[in-house]
Amino acid sequence: MNLVETFSEFKGSKNIDRPTMVRVLEDVFRTLIRKKYGSDENYDVIVNTTNGDLEMWRVREIAPDGEVTDDRSQISISEALSIDEDYEVGEECYEQLTLEEFGRRSIMAARQTLISRIMELEKDEIFKRYSDRVGDLILGEVHQILKREILIVDDVTGNELILPRSEMIKGDFFRKGDMVKGVISRVDMKNNNPVVIMSRTDSVFLEKLLEQEVPEIEDGLITVKKIVRIPGERAKVAVESYDDRIDPVGACVGMKGSRIHGIVRELKNENIDIVNFTNNSILFIQRSLTPAKVTNIELNNETMTAAVFLKPDQVSLAIGKGGSNIKLAGKLTGYEIDVYRDSDELEVDDVDLDEFSDEIESWVIDSLKSIGCDSARSVLNLSKEELTRRTDLEEETVDDVLKILASEFEE
Questions:
Q1: How confident is the model at residue 14 (pLDDT cuts 50, 70, 90)?
Q2: Superfamily grouping for domain 133-201
Q3: How far, rounded to the nearest angstrom, does the alpha carbon of residue 56 sit from its chain's CA centroid?
Q4: For 140-168, how does the pLDDT look when each residue is reduced to its tens digit (9 = 90+)?
């Protein structure tokens, strides 16, 4: 039995750097020596940093027979010669120790101590390594699918990561063995174990995908100023270039959408709007409401609200599916945006919605106004399906409203 055979399983620990491993091994075996001999003062523990081999040597000065005053630091010449016949008085005698000398119980205790120390070091190393990489793009293989989370194995380190269902995009579906991209969201400590959380819904994920696809961003020629997302549905990205020769929006989208297309596919067809950032708030709001064309904007910087006026056919574009466009535009610009139909006065044969307050409940009228419909004809211009989807009103309620408004214009 020798040290190398007994402790060889620890030599290749992938999470601990070599100098640290050497220090741990030295410390464990010096403790073993102290317990048996009372001191480790005259002992050398040598760890071969190339192959991880371990050796322990007892070093004592050779004294003439009968003149040994301290057994710990001295050895008689006759005993030294039994170790090596070339030794002489005054030299240092090197005697190699074997594990058998320490006894089975001491060896097992040392082994357990070593296991414990290495596990703690590996945990600390994993925590530190991934804490330093929060926000980095990561690729891993699906290892296990659980009810609330998916266990991912980091493709580079082999460490286990967790992708919670709450950090997955609507429409994400993975099988065991699939490769998954995401960003390191955070690192928690649970029961003294590091838990690395991965995310696909974080705005940083979209930013890292853009960096990967758009060299100008990685090179610092284009800056991503802000990203807002409804994961899997829609995202808005404000970009800026400090080089007038570079069109930041065009560079991010790529020729015929070549750069953005891969990102959209990765994000389960998330609709991504890239807009030019500007400090001009009115212009920024206008751009953020793309694809709608804005007629006029009135700002109130005290309340951080913006009244946006659009042609009737642009209102639904500005609001977007389920209000997603206007919601994200508000988050991107920092303004609460209200949308209004751009008309100074009602058409000759149109009627203000408030005129129907006796027949239509006020909360229903407010719901219709919230999507930019403030007159009878503006409601009738939209289909029943569109009104149901955008207002979240029940179909029966929408049917009643349409019937009441339509009756107003019947001959």
A1: low
A2: Nucleic acid-binding proteins (2.40.50.140)
A3: 46
A4: 999 999 999 999 999 888 889 999 999 99
Give the strands of the sheet with 294-300, arranged side by side.
Answer: 294-300, 305-310, 336-341
Which class in CATH covers the domain with range 212-277? alpha beta
Closest to 176 in 3D by CA, of 148, 152, 201, 149: 152
Each residue of 308-319: pLDDT tens digit? 888 877 888 888
Secondary structure string (H, E, C) spanning the chain: CCHHHHHHHHCCCCCCCHHHHHHHHHHHHHHHHHHHHCCCCCEEEEECCCCCCEEEEEEEEEECCCCCCCCCCEEEHHHHHHHCCCCCCCCEEEEECCHHHHCHHHHHHHHHHHHHHHHHHHHHHHHHHHHCCCCCEEEEEEEEECCCEEEEEECCCCCEEEEEHHHCCCCCCCCCCCEEEEEEEEEEEECCEEEEEEECCCHHHHHHHHHHHCHHHHCCCEEEEEEEEECCCEEEEEEEECCCCCCHHHHHHCHHHHHHHHHHHHCCCCEEEEEECCCCHHHHHHHHCCCCCEEEEEEECCCCEEEEEECHHHHHHHHCHHHHHHHHHHHHHCCEEEEEECCCCCCCCCCEHHHHCCCCCHHHHHHHHCCCCCEHHHHHCCCHHHHHHHHCCCHHHHHHHHHHHHHHCCC
The gap from C-alpha 246 to its chain's centroid, in whole angstroms, comes to 30
- Please report, in angstroms and rounded to a whole number, the separation of the first and last CA atoms in the chain: 106
3-129, superfamily in CATH? NusA, N-terminal domain (3.30.1480.10)
185 vs 197: CA distance, rounded Å = 6
pLDDT value at residue 51: 64
Q: What is the pLDDT of residues 340-383, one digit of tens each?
A: 777 655 555 678 888 888 888 989 988 888 877 878 888 887 77
Give the CA radius of gyration of the chain. Answer: 36
Domains of the chain, by residue range, sit at 3-129, 133-201, 212-277, 353-408
Whole-number average pLDDT of the chain: 86
The predicted-structure confidence for 73-109, as pLDDT tens digits, reads as follows 888 999 889 888 888 888 999 988 887 778 778 778 8
